[in-house]
Amino acid sequence: MSIEQQEAIKQRSYAEAMRYMSNAKETLQKARKENNLYADKKYVRTACGTAYNGVLLALDSYLTLKGVDMPKKKRRSIEFYTSHVAQLDGKLLKELNVTYDILHLSGYYDGIQDAIVVKRGFEHAYDIIDHIKPNHVIELPPAKPSLLNWVVSLFV
């Protein structure tokens, strides 16, 4: 794989992973924070799940760039990720384990409401995503507005 192809993969994957993180942060704001506790578990669970999916996108690209043969099936187990990452980067493995525990297990499944813990999970997610950060980040244009937004804009 050429350097240009690697950079193109990084550009696309990094932008998409960051879009997931942006969406997760927006969702988390709906959970209303009170004294470092989120009031609404539903939004916390959704936000943590979205952020974790952004991490998985980044890991898929990272492993592809490192030459790991990715299985054809879309759904891969955490064991797949941990075993391959362990062979490549011990520090990244620690980040992955913490991110998995906080965002996927505590956040998505349990709906943890501790804002400080969720914040740490997001920080670890960003650390993982930074492993595929391209040399020159190109900002993608915002998503096209929905038809409803377009219709509403006609009358405002």
Number of domains: 1
Unreliable spans are 150-156
Q: In CATH, what is the homologous superfamily? A: Nucleotidyltransferases  domain 2
The name of the CATH topology is: Four Helix Bundle (Hemerythrin (Met), subunit A)
Name the beta content range: under 5%
- What is the number of strand segments? 2
Shape: globular
Order of helices and strands: HEEHHHHH
- Chain oligomer state: single chain
Strand order of the largest sheet: 1-2
Name of the level-1 CATH class: Mainly Alpha
Strand count, sense and barrel status of the largest sheet are: 2 strands, antiparallel
How does the helix and strand content classify structurally? mainly alpha
CATH architecture annotation name: Up-down Bundle
Radius of gyration: 17 Å
Helix content: 55-70%
Structural account:
By secondary structure, this protein is mostly helical. The chain has a single domain, classed as Nucleotidyltransferases  domain 2 (Four Helix Bundle (Hemerythrin (Met), subunit A), Up-down Bundle), CATH 1.20.120. The protein contains six helices and two strands, in the order αββααααα. It has helices spanning 3-29, 41-65, 78-88, 90-109, 115-129, 147-155, and strands at residues 33-34, 37-38. The longest helix is centred in the N-terminal third of the chain and has 27 residues, at 3-29. The N and C termini lie far apart (50 Å). 29% of the residues are buried.
